[in-house]
Amino acid sequence: MNESRTPAIISLERLRASLADVGLGLPLDGAQEHRDAAAAAVRQIDDYIRPRLADLDAPLLAVVGGSTGSGKSTIVNALVGTPTSRAGVIRPTTRQPILVHSPADAGWFASDRILPGLARVRGQVTAAGTPASSAGDAPAASRINELMLLGIDRVPPFLAIVDAPDIDSVADDNRALASQLLAAADLWLFVTTANRYADAVPWRLLDNAAARSITVGVILNRVPPGAAADVLPDLRGMLDQRGLSGTQVFVIDEQPLDDLGMLPPTAVDAPRAWLESIAGDRAERARVAARTLRGAVDDLDRRVLVIADARQQQLDWIEGAVAAVAHEYELAVEAVDDATKDGALLRGEVLARWQDFVGTSDVFRRLEGWVSRARDQATAWLRGRPQPVVEVETQIERGLHAVILDQGGSAAAAAWASLQRSAAGRSIAQQHPELRSESAGFAEASATLVRDWQGALMQLVQQNAGSKRVRARVLSLGLNVVTVALMVVVFASTGGLTGGEVVIAGGSAVVGQKLLETIFGEDAVRRLAVEARRDLQQRVDALFDSEAVRVTEALADARLGASPEVLRRESEALLDDVERAAASGDRS
């Protein structure tokens, strides 16, 4: 029972790890089904694929399944020759799964080699004379998570039989456990009746058996006298249509039970002989195990591809949500850019303060005179008198700050609204209510941006004051004056102004530009204005990016998990490794 970590085992473990952390947390359509599918795939890897892949020679596990009242437990008791599973009219009768095996195989099933999620409980064979209605006494609901092990001499070596709960049980846990046990089986012994063989629930499981290429035997139980001639052809036809042609079908006539609630031993001679023929032939056991294993791996691959598509849907939604939020902040950046070039920032107080500073009476008649007056004003400022240019700078700072704040708040509100349009987005919003508005530090960050940009403009002016003549002119006017003039040139346009504002703003821009051209030259002013605007745009971009990234960070957990490409690649690698292992085994 020692196993080596073969390439196939290593591939399987990688795929299992990816499926266990696949990342399907967003409530998209069908996401819960895909999460369940991923969990079921992990369980089947643990319960069946890994242990069988590790050892094809291990005993086979035959699971007896069927609908409520089909007589599963009665048939299991007859197969092993003693009451082991409770049989009766109270439903569900099978609450705890019971695994019966040859005493020689006890070591195979005592460990968690198969069905590791079920605790092992060593049971005792029911005392002679105990009726089947009292067998397998496990009334506590919690014991559904336990697997009772019974060693019985009548069970042939290299075969274990499990009596599973009803596949259509009224108890959810029973149905889930029945599906888990059937998924862990090497072969199925499926029990139905002449009255219920066409029910939909059993056939859904039989369809799964066909998908997995599992070896199936069907017991048609409680067949009234003469009914087999009518029922059997129809049942075989349904099996053929489902890809289960060649399935062994055993008929058990309706007959009375003995005083202990047992069928006569001869009633199950045929299914017992079938099981014993498989268990007693090593080559046949290997064939059954290999066929079921390959079918399980093929079926796992099909499920992984569906899960990978579901994972891609999650990632696509995340990318779409991030793009939608980014678009809102891009619009906000554009709005700030528009507001800083259509003249809107030079309205009201800014215009008034600029007009106080530069005047307009003879600006266009004699720029030299205005420059002289500006120099006088700068000198007056040095002597302690108020300098209106500082007020202009302050008003521009306030206006720019207000625009950035307004657009940041609008973008946050729009991003929040975009999240509210889907269940997935609402789930993210519910976990991150802070996204409803701009970040707590946004106002301060905006103010810092404006101050830093103004400081950068001063540095830009200083860096371009290369010659002594230029430096002298900048010094004579004052660095603030030149910087404010540059801001006016950057912001001034008539697009957002009306009436008298157009004349004032337009004239102000001309004055500012002429002043700068006198200092730096025409080409240099154009370059300075472009650099100043580009710098502002980059700073606003970075600020709004830091706001948009909050949504990206909120989605970080949803991004966690295996990529669809990894899932597909790992599943394909497992298929290849299993095929190579099978080919090697066939040659040996």
Descriptive labels:
588 residues, alpha/beta
Structure in words:
The protein has helices at 7-20, 31-54, 72-80, 106-110, 172-183, 200-212, 228-241, 269-279, 282-339, 348-358, 367-382, 388-419, 423-431, 442-464, 468-477, 479-491, 500-520, 522-554, 556-559, 564-587, and strands at residues 60-66, 98-101, 119-122, 146-151, 159-163, 187-193, 215-223, 248-253. It is an alpha/beta fold. Helix 6 links the parallel strand 6 (187-193) and strand 7. The longest helix has 58 residues, at 282-339. It is rod-shaped and about 120 Å long.
Q: What is the helix fraction of residues, given as a range?
A: 55-70%
Give the strand order of the largest sheet, numbering strands 1, 2, ... along the chain.
Answer: 3-4-2-5-1-6-7-8
What's the SSE pattern?
HHEHEHEEEHEHEHEHHHHHHHHHHHHH
Largest sheet: 8 strands, mixed
Distance between the amino and carboxyl termini: 20 Å
The helix/strand class is: alpha/beta
Instruction: Please tell me what the overall shape is.
Output: rod-shaped
Please count the beta strands (DSSP E, at least 2 residues each): 8
State Rg.
Answer: 41 Å
Query: Mean of residue pLDDT?
Result: 84
